[in-house]
Amino acid sequence: MERYARYAGLFKALSDPNRLMIVDMLSCGELCACKILERFDITQPTLSHHMKILCDCGLVSGRKAGKWTYYSLVEKAAQDFKDFLNAVITAEENCVCGADNNEECC
Amino acid sequence: MERYARYAGLFKALSDPNRLMIVDMLSCGELCACKILERFDITQPTLSHHMKILCDCGLVSGRKAGKWTYYSLVEKAAQDFKDFLNAVITAEENCVCGADNNEECC
DNA sequence: ATAATATATCGACACCTATCTATGCGAGAG
DNA sequence: CTCTCGCATAGATAGGTGTCGATATATTAT
After folding, report:
1. pLDDT tens digits, A5-57
2. Nucleotide minimizing C1' to CA distance for residue A35
3. Are A11 and B20 an interchain contact pair (Cβ–Cβ within 8 Å)?
4. Entry pTM
5. A42 close to B (CB below 8 A)
6. Rounded to an integer, what distance in angstroms lies between the CA atom of residue A57 and that of residue A47?
7. DSSP assignment of A55-98, as one string?
8. Are A44 and B57 contacting, i.e. CB atoms less than 8 angstroms apart?
9. Most exposed among A19, B23, B53, B78, judged by the fewest C-beta atoms under 10 Å?
10. Rounded Cα–Cα distance for residues A83 and A81 (Å)
11. Residue A45 to residue A49: CA distance in whole angstroms
12. What is the pLDDT of residues B51-73, one digit of tens each?
């Protein structure tokens, strides 16, 4: 259950259209905050809020360079997340369903 | 942007640990509501609420049979979702990043 | 018909979220 | 040192979310 709670945080981080698009942009490479901001109709503090959420969940990392902050996707976190989703939607040995599906219901 | 908003709804549906675990259980096959309820420390109305969210986003479907309601994963929706996530975290031709990454920043 | 059972809906509550404006803070430029 | 610029933080606000107890609805059993 700990595992589910941890990944649920990642799903929540991507549950906003703006953040989803930001991650898509970052998948092509590092971008500075102002470049990201250009593509959205939100204020700078709002973008900062979204970037913090993406960083806090571990999917994105920020790098300060002078006045600018560059954000990039954390490849390993993204892969782990993808693998987790795949495991969740795929039938597995040792699944949480408990393997008592074949019992008569109720 | 429409596309992001649509899938953001799916991420939101999976942003709760209980719902994430429910989907994992359903990936092994159809389950009746009471069987699902057994595995959680929540009340029946709360489970009903979660199942409605999972159904509304298209990831799960419900089938009434007498007194019972059986829920199952919608395989195509799950696959499409997985493919979308993969596209988002992978660099692509024709990406939303706009391909102007190589410009000097700001 | 009446009772029991499975599930959904309603109304309430505490908490969280996305957004804004205003402000703070650190780095470079003059 | 002071000004400007990029970004983060604080505070406010409207709306959403997870949970519950109470109740409604529908189906099966008596």
Report:
1. 999 999 999 999 999 999 999 999 999 999 999 999 999 999 999 999 999 99
2. D6
3. yes
4. 0.91
5. no
6. 16
7. HHTTSEEEEEETTEEEEEE-HHHHHHHHHHHHHHHS--TT-TTT
8. no
9. B53
10. 5
11. 6
12. 999 999 999 999 999 999 999 99
Q: Which residue has the tokens 């393997």?
A: A99
Between helices B44-56 and B17-26, what is the axis angle to 10°? Answer: 70
Q: Using alpha carbons only, how large is chain B's radius of gyration in Å? A: 18
Q: How many Å apart are CA A54 and CA A67, to the nearest integer?
A: 21
Write out chain B residues lying below 8 Å of A24, CB-based: 4, 87-88, 95-97
The token duo for B26 is: 């359903």
Q: How far apart are CA B83 and CA A10, in angstroms?
A: 17
DSSP SS3 for B56: helix
Q: Which domains does chain A have, with CATH numbers?
A: 2-89 (1.10.10.10)
| Alpha-carbon distance values, B82 to A56, A70, B78, B86 (Å) | 23, 28, 6, 6
How open is the CA angle A16-B36-B33, to the nearest 5 degrees?
Answer: 95
β-pairing, B31-32 vs A60-65, is unpaired
Closest CA to the C1' of C9: that residue is: B45
